[in-house]
Design a protein that fits this description.
The chain is α+β, with helices and mostly antiparallel strands. About 40% of the residues lie in helices and about 20% in strands. The chain has 9 helices and 6 strands; from the N terminus they run βββαβαααββααααα.
């Protein structure tokens, strides 16, 4: 008889921007990002006669549980209680939907499939119904640190992991957000993508250079200023691809002002998480 309680903590995901987002290039999406310890999704999974979801985003928990059940070929939701103890606000650049989904799928697997082999990142993303675009948050959930992934080709469940490095423990990241500001999601996000032209191949090549040859080696060698400048350059360039929708490289004049202010006081690594 199952009696244990499973606790899952999923750190927030910062995504510095996509490499591409259309079909004309060999790979779609991709990018670079990293995980931060706070804020985090925290939840508990415990046995229950029937499925129950409580706490913030309970409706989304139920959707993930239904996806997990389909992945397991179950006819009904699993018998357990999922309590979300803490969660960042959705659609604020922290990957809340992905981290919540992966946390729920991981918790259900640990509680109800204790004798099964560990679930791979691709399997967990499939179980949670995530990973349709970037896989930075999926790999970040499993491994933490700084993640670089090249994007998906047709037939990929999720994009492959290209590289992962630990971020130096002395580094700090400050998160700023205007009150009541949330990004596009769902149908509005899909419609926005449909209005955008494809990312030029030359832009994708430059973004890959910044990710692989500047940001990644700077983190590996603890060169913070070089890392910070690389993050800003990458984010600015990636953001220009969305300028027709958001009016510039950043999502509106308030965020543009925030980035300029932060850089003016010496924090050169200012950017926007998608």
């Amino acid at each position: 008889m199952i009696s244990q309680c499973i606790q899952v903590t999923a750190p927030a995901r910062l995504h510095f921007g996509l490499l591409s987002f259309e079909n004309r290039q060999q790979r779609r999406f991709g990018g670079v990002g990293l995980m931060v310890q706070q804020p985090a999704v925290q939840l508990r999974c415990a046995p229950s006669p029937q499925f129950r979801a409580t706490g913030p985003l309970a409706d989304r928990v139920r959707e993930v549980a239904a996806s997990w059940s389909r992945w397991q070929s179950r006819d009904a939701l699993p018998g357990c209680r999922v309590e979300v103890c803490a969660s960042p606000q959705p659609h604020t650049g922290l990957g809340t939907g992905t981290q919540l989904g992966l946390a729920v799928a991981a918790g259900l697997s640990a509680l109800l499939l204790p004798a099964s082999p560990s679930v791979s990142p691709a399997e967990l993303a499939t179980a949670a119904g995530r990973g349709h675009r970037s896989a930075v948050g999926t790999y970040g959930f499993h491994f933490g640190g700084l993640i670089v992934e090249p994007g998906k080709v047709p037939g990929d469940e999720i994009a492959p992991l290209e590289n992962r490095v630990a971020v130096p423990p002395s580094w700090r990241f400050v998160l700023l957000r205007p009150l009541n500001h949330v990004g596009l999601s769902g149908r509005a996000e899909q419609e926005a993508f449909a209005l955008l032209d494809g990312v030029p191949a030359s832009t994708t090549r430059q973004l890959r250079h910044l990710a692989r040859d500047v940001i990644l080696p700077a983190a590996q060698s603890n060169r913070f200023q070089e890392f910070a400048e690389g993050v800003y350059d990458y984010g600015y360039l990636a953001g220009t691809c969305f300028a027709p929708i958001q009016g510039g490289p950043f999502a509106g004049p308030r965020l543009t002002e925030l980035v300029e202010t932060v850089r003016s006081i010496g924090a050169k690594g200012a950017g926007q998480s998608s």
